[in-house]
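Entry 14. Ran structure prediction on the chain below.
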Amino acid sequence: MRLVGLTGGIATGKSTVSNLFKANGFPVVDADVVARNVLKKGTGGWKKVVAAFGEEILQENGEVDREKLGAIIFTDPSKRQLLNKLLAPYIAFGIWSEVFKLWIKGCNIIILDVPLLYEAKMDRWTKPNIVVWVDPKIQLKRLMVRDVISAQDARYKINAQMPLDVKKSKADLVIDNNGSLEDLNENFKKILVQVTKPLTWTEFLLSRQGAIVAVISIFSAVYGCKKMVARL
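Output, structure tokens:
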């Protein structure tokens, strides 16, 4: 099984690339979706966050107001780190639960869409790791337009993440998204060639099919040894 790490920065086009993988038939485990689920009212993550940040971050229906929470953590690094620490175990469990479900189904290539891939050190489990990259100036402009916010507020959000150039330096593969959507599609096709290369033996053995083959091989070897011993 090949676990492909996909990450980037805010307003770099990572979600667009994630959707391109889906459109090409690849299963995608989205960490943002998992994070939303672990913050639903009454869950363990919800209880931890409310206890730490207070009920003022809640909506009238008791659900977490993500905009209020975001405003707090984007301007306060210590609170951002606290939130990540509280939710990390729940998010990790959710991600690996989804991976296991896909493994059971026999999926050989799974895309892990994780914004904090490097920060959470999940890149140790994924290969190759893909970073969707844009020039920082373009990133700033796109974020301002997308969220209809000032340059200062956009910088707060961007600076809350690992610098994009640092992620780029850590990547196995980089998708340049400075151009048009057509350019992005062409760059994606090049990356797709790399992602769909034949599985290595290690990757195959980690797949469901590989596990079955390994079990059968072990059983056959044990059975063969028993027959040989019986003839002595």
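The first strand starts at residue 2 and ends at 8. Will compare against last week's run tomorrow.
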